[in-house]
Amino acid sequence: MTVFEMIIARKIPSHIVYEDDLIIAFLDISQATKGHTLVVPKKPYENIFDIPEDLLKHLIGVVKKLSPAIKNAFNATGINIVNNNGKDAGQTVFHYHFHIVPRYENDNFNIIFSNNANTLNEEEYKKRATLIKAALL
Ligand code: AMP
Predict the structure, then answer these.
(1) Residue 112 confidence (pLDDT) above 90
(2) Whether the CB of 83 sits within 6 Å of ligand 1
(3) Quick check: is 97 catalytic?
């Protein structure tokens, strides 16, 4: 049983900010920034590969509802929506979830992509795009 299942079952405490039949949202215990919130389906799907599309649509709808509320509650100047899938992607709780991370000027939260533009030749971009398109078939 993951820690999120224990939260959903009220076996351990949490600070719940939203709940419906399918979804629960609560404060991340490790507040990356003020108001950092997790949005979690109650059924314990592990990742993007497992979660059914209908449930994911509902989940993103809840993220859409919570994002402006969280932004306004703390006068944030931006929001990052983060979803880690797999250990190498930074996932530590293997129960699907979105992070809503409100952002502030100079908040020291680092989610910057390094700039790798101009490091590949045209041929390599084409090969990568072809591999993805082939995998979609
Ligand atoms: P991830 O690394 O994307 O799998 O995110 C898991 C998140 O769960 C981390 O940001 C943790 O701080 C958070 N977390 C772990 N245990 C708890 C807990 N008991 N209550 C709230 N958040 C938790």
Answers:
(1) no
(2) no
(3) yes
